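Dear colleague,

Thank you for sharing your sequence with our group. We've completed the structure prediction you requested, and as agreed, I am returning the results in plain text so they can be pasted directly into your records. Please verify that the sequence below matches your submission; if there's any discrepancy, let me know and we will rerun it promptly.
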Amino acid sequence: MGTAFEAAVAVGDHVRACQLLAPQTREQLEQDEQKACPTAFAAQELPRTRGIQEVEAYGRQALVRLSGDTLFLSLFTAGWKVVAAGCTPRPDQPYSCLIKGA
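Please find the predicted structure tokens below.
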């Protein structure tokens, strides 16, 4: 799942990237940007990545560390979806994410 999202971002396939977002994340992005998801996604400056470095799964939640980005995923009926992307760690605080759900 992380590689499919990474590939969609790398080639600028914003429609596919939006399909891989969790429903609440997609809705929040559209609300924040006041645009349909593909257009709103295109306006985000997600980092370019070069492969998965580490995956940590905790039941229905997962953290995927890529070279240059961190994704948070949740397992839905339709499979794994990205709930947050463009995330960077902050000392003693939650990650700061460019794209995230409410």
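Summary note from our side: Strands lie at 52-58, 61-66, 69-76, 79-90, 93-100.

Kind regards,
the structure core
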